[in-house]
Amino acid sequence: MSGLITVRILEAVRDTLQHFLASPNLGLFAWTLLFGAPSGSVAVATPSSSTGTQPKRSNEGRRLLVSVSLDGVPRSEAVYAALQKLSSCCDLVVEMVASSDEEENSGRQEISQKVGIPAHRVLFSSTTSGRASMIRQLNPAWHLDTDEGVLKYLIGLVPHLATISATAAKAASGDGDFITVFSSIDSFADSLSPSTHK
């Protein structure tokens, strides 16, 4: 029995040594020891350096994900223009409550055409609590809403909350410190637009 254990241990040691000796790092380490490296630097091969480096995506190239609820907001050309401004600088998702498939289809088509965002970026729920859950899962950088229940639910779950209703902000967070109040969707869009920060 002890002979079998010894054989298994020797096989494990052999496999480990074979793997170590086949490693590209061992060759580089041996070369560095034999021929020296300038100023004590040691090169280590990694999968990306041995197969060609691939550039990493920088966070600077990413656009903010912003969600806007149009419930409680009168739809006008000014609102559509503000949403177009947002979609030009952010990844915009528009959310609304719809009670039927027809209402959902007409709303999706209207928003998609007038704002110029893809239809899959127009989301619907049947209740405001459903909207709150969808926004939590979406996890946008900013969410604009007029419903105090949704805003209250999202405090601490979404990094930045905004509203165009000071009363909703006060009701949702007490003193309104957690929610930024804007005078209109256009002023919200201006605050996120990079052209206004220059």
UniProtKB/TrEMBL annotation:
Record-given protein name: Uncharacterized protein
GO BP term, pick one: peroxisome organization
Biological source species: Perkinsus olseni (Perkinsus atlanticus)
InterPro entries, per the entry: PEX22
Taxonomic lineage from the root: Eukaryota, Sar, Alveolata, Perkinsozoa, Perkinsea
